[in-house]
Write a structure and sequence with these properties.
The chain is an alpha+beta fold. The protein contains seven helices and eleven strands. A hairpin with a 5-residue loop joins strand 4 and strand 5. The longest helix is centred in the middle third of the chain and has 27 residues.
Length: 220
């Protein structure tokens, strides 16, 4: 007797769902460097990246800037409003030509209550983000700036999601990489040149990652 064939469920498409669920939403296009929201702005909506990329950063009272995350298509941000956050805790900036879908807080809460599929997708997103924040904190506390840069490049290249031997990093300035890693631009430049000389990356304005870069992260 033939064994029944199990059909793998198609991954949940958040964009397709948001397009068809009748949610009141607004789609806005941003040019490179444009602020999507600024630190201290009212937090009244959840945002979803359709195309492009977004940098989330925080400015301290002492004037020190830190990059919290670099996000791409298919990712939510600004979800703190759902937990009672009244003001934006950081600034969201478009990294290039970027299209963002904004869903008002009330509509998002209603949809999450009424649509378990979106709720599951959103919960997975939030938990994954929290895990990454914890990993970033450990990285900052215990690893060298060289290892932190290597890890940041691997994450930006979405390393581990497939078997491709090399992947490109979104076009980012060395200043942004320095803010992400918590070091100076000159140190980032030094390590990028070192990684290139060792054959871990190709670097000529745009960075292409080879999986051999993982050896920097794994080396004690």
């Amino acid at each position: 007797m033939d064994k029944p064939t199990l059909r793998k469920a198609a991954p949940f498409n958040a964009q397709q769902f948001l397009d068809s669920a009748g949610i009141k939403r607004a789609v806005t296009k941003y040019a490179r460097g444009s602020a999507i929201f600024s630190q201290g702005d009212p937090a009244s909506s959840v945002l979803y990246i359709q195309t492009g990329g977004v940098k989330l950063s925080v400015l301290s009272k002492a004037g020190k800037n830190a990059v919290v995350a670099i996000l791409g298509p298919g990712e939510f941000f600004g979800e703190g409003c759902l937990a009672g956050q009244a003001l934006r805790m950081g600034t969201a900036t478009a990294l290039g030509a970027t299209t963002v879908l904004a869903v008002e807080k009330a509509h998002m809460l209603h949809t999450l209550h009424e649509e378990p599929e979106l709720s599951d997708r959103f919960l997975t997103h939030v938990l994954t983000r929290n895990i990454k924040i914890e990993e970033d904190l450990v990285d900052q506390l215990f690893n060298s700036s060289e290892k932190r840069l290597a890890r940041a490049l691997l994450l930006l290249a979405r390393y581990g999601r497939d078997d491709e031997p090399a992947r490109s990093v979104p076009r980012l300035s060395q200043d942004i990489l320095a803010d992400m890693v918590g070091t100076t631009r000159s140190r980032v430049n030094f390590f990028l040149n070192k990684f290139r000389d060792l054959g871990f990356i190709k670097y000529n304005g745009r960075i292409e990652i080879h999986k051999s870069l993982l050896s920097v992260v794994l080396h004690d």
